[in-house]
């Protein structure tokens, strides 16, 4: 390149536009990506960035405010009371980043059926692997080019029940393998320097003073710091739309009577005060997620183990007074349905009987709904509970958070392969549009469902009992299970 | 000489092109060929439009260059494909898939495309006759890159193509050759040059035999007249008024003819779609608005 060399020799370097007010960044470490929050969602993002070849020179920092070491669960240890129902889409995601073998080497329980029924009306619905075969498998075999069948992923389960700690442990093992990911525990951000937003020319990067006294710069800041997100607050995001359900969830690990069949059904019953769910852990253990009014939750926390077990059994089996009007309307409907499609009215199966509760496994937390109107700003993105929080009907919330990770990673990849800047607002907005398009209907459905079933007022009960409820109850759950498996990766 | 003096043009090319805008394209090309004797492809009124500030060039949210920034998501993969045969959308080739390739970006403006190509590992020379734009490009590179290797890979020079070729023909060492680059890029420039035929000829001279010359530009169609010019400049105010002279737009068929005349052959033409509301580009078969053309030098 003779011409190139010659011309360059001729031109002296003069940077007349370099202003004297420009700050020097050389003394502040510059990261391509800083993730605040090392929960399931934040670590999942770190893992997929760390494993993408095009991102292998990206400098990534993970900030986790907790000083606790990552959990260490061994296969025969007590079960934790915090569990998730992972959809096949989430499982596929974990598989593609090598996290899934680490999870199953500890423990994960497949479920093959979801059974939802109502305490105030005789209606119930169940759906299983077979029901989804049309929609799910045609897509999954096309999408994953038959891989799922070879690996025995989707044809024998609707999803998996996994303890949060097991997922966290698998993820943190993976994060530790990535040489370009730095982790700081016990450290958080003190504030966000907004000068970048006002003058992005002289201050191209976002600057953060940290609680350990250092200051760092970054191209992209991701808030994965949960429902009380500090990144969302300090980043000046509009407050999320939120309300409390006036409900609390009580969780526990329960021992069940061993039945004749294997324990592979996720049960959920809608009670006047909220849904109660039993998720299978082993052949003789289930995880409980019981949403109810706070005063009742308090009682449940305080009562003796024997009384607690009795309460759970009552909640699962007791006949609630069924309104006369509702019952007869439902009778008519039942007949109508069986005429139209014989065999569609399922014989109700019964959930397992609870025998005992594991030691100190009871836990309680308040429930709320929150959704941030915006997930992104220039150089900032929110993922997981920081962006949205749903009612934990059967523990499906984390799937939505992993969906955010998938979409954000997809946008970052597009930017990387075009040699671009991760903080650019155009691609962050594409992430926001894509994930909100998928999240909003599901969140709205879960919220509506929660409201519909949380009342025993006759008109509502009649409404939910008139056939609409069959699909209404199952749809959001089915959506998460099916739609999240359909996402492209 | 360090800069090309845009004010020293011997003839008011502006006036000539204004008249030409009213003549049919066929005659226009003939007149332009005649203009070749003036030995310049640079129309100073066309380059002065790009004396934008650092802020204007590098604001990727709004303003005149926002669409050029987001356009990188479609044009960079196509340039990659021209060089290595794959767009590598999954990013499997690592962070520097273009390592070892040399690229000449003609009419590089504020360096929006050059920096991204440099990020992918290639050696880039960006040239532009407008010294203000080159100053912006140089400043931005120094200001925002803190790894020194990309600063070594990306160079800028304020000059026209003819200056570069002239400099190249004065041999300073034995292995000097005018067919220098693996890829020569003219992105969003064709619609501003004074003599397309001569400009394409010069681009071809700078490419290695077997190397690529790639273009992205606006087609001359009724929809482009309305959307690209009227809507962008008058309705949405995305671009300053007068940014484009519709009569200067070149159709893919004409460009194909022109590259053939200069010992190149077209390998692919692809349409680029743009959504001004989201500032997002996509590939499409329709080349009515913007298109990308890849030619190989024989
Ligand atoms: C008490 C509780 C119980 C739940 N139980 C269930 C359940 O049984 N099933 C279910 O599906 N879902 C449950 N959820 C919801 C589920 O945990 C979330 O959907 C899921 O964990 C989302 O993960 P995340 O990574 O977005 O947020 P989180 O899991 O909340 O993780 C946030 C992480 O960020 C860290 N952090 C917070 N603030 C800062 C800061 N300022 N700086 C640095 N780090 C910070 C936290 O220490 C934490 O590690 C529960 C939520 C809560 C709060
Ligand atoms: C729309 S800008 C495109 C900038 C850059 N290629 C990009 O896509 O980001 C057009 C640029 O072409 C330059 N230009 C105009 N006429 C030219 C010519 N005859 N030769 C080289 N560059 C020219 C202008 O100075 C301007 O910077």
From TrEMBL, chain A:
InterPro entries, alphabetized: FAD-bd, FAD/NAD-bd_sf, UbiH/COQ6, UbiH/COQ6_monooxygenase, UbQ_mOase_COQ6
Enzyme class: oxidoreductase
UniProt EC number: 1.14.15.45, 1.14.15.46
This protein's pathway: Cofactor biosynthesis; ubiquinone biosynthesis
Keywords annotated in UniProt: FAD, Flavoprotein, Membrane, Mitochondrion, Mitochondrion inner membrane, Monooxygenase, Oxidoreductase, Ubiquinone biosynthesis
Primary site of residence: mitochondrion
Molecular function (Gene Ontology), one example: 4-hydroxy-3-all-trans-polyprenylbenzoate oxygenase activity
Pfam family, one: FAD_binding_3
Compartment(s): Mitochondrion inner membrane
Reaction(s) catalysed by this chain's protein: a 2-methoxy-6-(all-trans-polyprenyl)phenol + 2 reduced [2Fe-2S]-[ferredoxin] + O2 + 2 H(+) = a 2-methoxy-6-(all-trans-polyprenyl)benzene-1,4-diol + 2 oxidized [2Fe-2S]-[ferredoxin] + H2O; a 4-hydroxy-3-(all-trans-polyprenyl)benzoate + 2 reduced [2Fe-2S]-[ferredoxin] + O2 + 2 H(+) = a 3,4-dihydroxy-5-(all-trans-polyprenyl)benzoate + 2 oxidized [2Fe-2S]-[ferredoxin] + H2O
Lipid bilayer topology: Peripheral membrane protein
GO cellular component: extrinsic component of mitochondrial inner membrane
Family of this protein: Belongs to the UbiH/COQ6 family.
Record-linked HAMAP family: COQ6_monooxygenase
Assembly information from the UniProt record: Component of a multi-subunit COQ enzyme complex.
Biological role: FAD-dependent monooxygenase required for two non-consecutive steps during ubiquinone biosynthesis. Required for the C5-ring hydroxylation during ubiquinone biosynthesis by catalyzing the hydroxylation of 4-hydroxy-3-(all-trans-polyprenyl)benzoic acid to 3,4-dihydroxy-5-(all-trans-polyprenyl)benzoic acid. Also acts downstream of coq4, for the C1-hydroxylation during ubiquinone biosynthesis by catalyzing the hydroxylation of 2-methoxy-6-(all-trans-polyprenyl)phenol to 2-methoxy-6-(all-trans-polyprenyl)benzene-1,4-diol.
Protein name: Ubiquinone biosynthesis monooxygenase COQ6, mitochondrial
Species of origin: Amphimedon queenslandica (Sponge)
Name of the gene: 100634129
TrEMBL record, chain B:
Single GO BP term: methylation
Cofactor(s) listed: Mg(2+)
Keywords: Magnesium, Membrane, Metal-binding, Methyltransferase, Mitochondrion, Mitochondrion inner membrane, S-adenosyl-L-methionine, Transferase, Ubiquinone biosynthesis
Membrane topology: Peripheral membrane protein
Binding site residues for Mg(2+): 188, 191-192
EC number: 2.1.1.64, 2.1.1.-, 2.1.1.114
Keyword Nucleotide-binding: no
GO CC annotation, single: extrinsic component of mitochondrial inner membrane
Main localization of the protein described in the UniProt heading: mitochondrion
Free-text function comment from the UniProt entry: O-methyltransferase required for two non-consecutive steps during ubiquinone biosynthesis. Catalyzes the 2 O-methylation of 3,4-dihydroxy-5-(all-trans-polyprenyl)benzoic acid into 4-hydroxy-3-methoxy-5-(all-trans-polyprenyl)benzoic acid. Also catalyzes the last step of ubiquinone biosynthesis by mediating methylation of 3-demethylubiquinone into ubiquinone. Also able to mediate the methylation of 3-demethylubiquinol into ubiquinol.
Protein name (record): Ubiquinone biosynthesis O-methyltransferase, mitochondrial
Organism field: Amphimedon queenslandica (Sponge)
Name of the gene: 100638841
């Amino acid at each position: 390149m003779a011409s190139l060399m010659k011309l360059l020799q001729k031109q002296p370097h003069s940077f007349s536009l370099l202003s004297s007010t420009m700050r020097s960044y050389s003394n502040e470490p510059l990261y391509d990506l800083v993730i605040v929050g090392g929960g399931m969602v934040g670590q999942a993002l770190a893992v997929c960035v760390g494993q993408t070849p095009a991102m292998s020179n990206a400098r990534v920092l993970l900030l986790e405010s907790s000083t606790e070491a990552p959990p260490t669960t061994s296969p025969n240890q007590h079960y934790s009371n915090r569990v998730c129902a992972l959809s096949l889409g989430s499982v596929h995601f974990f598989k593609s980043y090598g996290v899934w073998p680490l999870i199953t080497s500890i423990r994960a329980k497949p479920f093959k059926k979801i059974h939802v029924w109502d305490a105030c009306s005789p209606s119930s619905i169940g759906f299983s692997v077979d029901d989804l075969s049309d929609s799910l498998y045609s897509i999954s075999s096309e999408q994953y080019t038959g891989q799922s069948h070879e690996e025995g992923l989707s044809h024998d389960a609707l999803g998996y029940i996994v303890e949060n700690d097991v997922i966290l442990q698998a993820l943190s093992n993976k994060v530790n393998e990535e040489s370009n990911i730095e982790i700081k525990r016990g450290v958080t951000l003190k504030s966000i320097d907004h000068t970048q937003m006002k003058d992005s020319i002289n201050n191209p990067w976002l600057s953060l003073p940290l609680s350990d006294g250092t200051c760092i710069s970054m191209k992209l800041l991701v808030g994965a710091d949960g429902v009380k997100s500090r990144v969302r607050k300090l980043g000046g995001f509009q407050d999320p739309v939120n309300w409390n359900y006036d409900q609390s969830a009580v969780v526990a690990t329960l021992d069940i009577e061993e039945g004749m069949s294997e324990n592979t059904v996720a049960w959920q019953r809608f009670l006047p005060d909220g849904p109660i769910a039993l998720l299978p852990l082993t052949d003789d253990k289930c995880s409980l997620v019981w949403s109810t009014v706070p005063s009742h939750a308090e009682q449940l926390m305080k009562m003796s183990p024997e009384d607690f077990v009795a309460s759970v059994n009552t909640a699962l089996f007791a006949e609630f007074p069924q309104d006369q009007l509702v019952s007869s309307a439902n009778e008519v409907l039942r007949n109508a349905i069986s005429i139209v499609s014989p065999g569609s009215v399922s014989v109700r199966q019964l959930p397992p009987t609870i025998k005992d509760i594991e030691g100190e496994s009871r836990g309680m937390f308040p429930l709320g709904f929150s959704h941030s109107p915006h997930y992104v700003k220039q150089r900032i993105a929110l993922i997981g509970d920081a962006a949205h929080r749903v009612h934990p009907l059967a523990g499906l919330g984390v799937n939505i958070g992993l969906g955010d990770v998938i979409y954000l990673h997809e946008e970052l990849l597009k930017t990387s392969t075009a040699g671009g800047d991760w903080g650019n607002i155009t691609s962050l907005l594409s992430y926001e549009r894509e994930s909100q398009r998928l999240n909003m209907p599901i969140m709205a459905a879960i919220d509506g469902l929660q409201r519909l079933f949380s009342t025993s007022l006759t008109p509502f009960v009649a409404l939910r009992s008139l056939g609409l409820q069959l699909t209404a109850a199952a749809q959001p759950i089915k959506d998460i299970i099916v739609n999240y498996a359909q996402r492209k990766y | 000489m360090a800069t090309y003096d845009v004010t020293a043009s011997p003839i008011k090319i502006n006036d000539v092109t204004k008249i030409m805008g009213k003549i049919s394209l066929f005659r226009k090309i003939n007149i332009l060929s005649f203009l070749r004797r003036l030995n310049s492809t640079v129309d100073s009124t066309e380059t002065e439009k790009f004396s934008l500030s650092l802020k204007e060039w590098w604001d990727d949210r709004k303003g005149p260059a926002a669409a050029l920034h987001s356009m990188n998501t479609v044009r960079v993969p196509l340039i990659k494909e021209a060089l290595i045969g794959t767009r590598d959308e999954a990013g499997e080739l690592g962070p520097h898939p273009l390592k070892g390739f040399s690229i000449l970006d003609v009419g590089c403006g504020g360096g929006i495309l050059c920096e991204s190509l440099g990020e992918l590992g290639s050696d880039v020379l960006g040239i532009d006759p407008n010294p203000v734009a080159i100053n912006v490009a140089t400043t931005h590179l120094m200001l925002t890159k803190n790894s020194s290797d990309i600063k070594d890979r990306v160079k800028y020079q304020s000059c026209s193509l003819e200056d570069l070729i002239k400099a190249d023909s004065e041999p300073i060492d034995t292995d000097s050759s005018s067919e220098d680059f693996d890829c020569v890029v003219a992105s969003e420039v064709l619609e501003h040059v004074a003599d397309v035929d001569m400009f394409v000829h010069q681009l071809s001279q700078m490419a290695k035999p077997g190397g690529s010359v790639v273009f992205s530009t606006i087609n001359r169609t009724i929809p482009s007249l309305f959307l690209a010019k009227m809507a962008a400049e008058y309705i949405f105010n995305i671009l300053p008024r007068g940014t484009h002279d519709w009569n200067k737009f070149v159709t893919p068929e004409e460009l194909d003819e022109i590259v053939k005349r200069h010992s190149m052959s077209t390998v692919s033409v692809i349409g680029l779609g743009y959504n001004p509301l989201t500032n997002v580009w996509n590939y499409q078969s329709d080349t009515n608005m913007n298109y990308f053309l890849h030619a190989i030098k024989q």
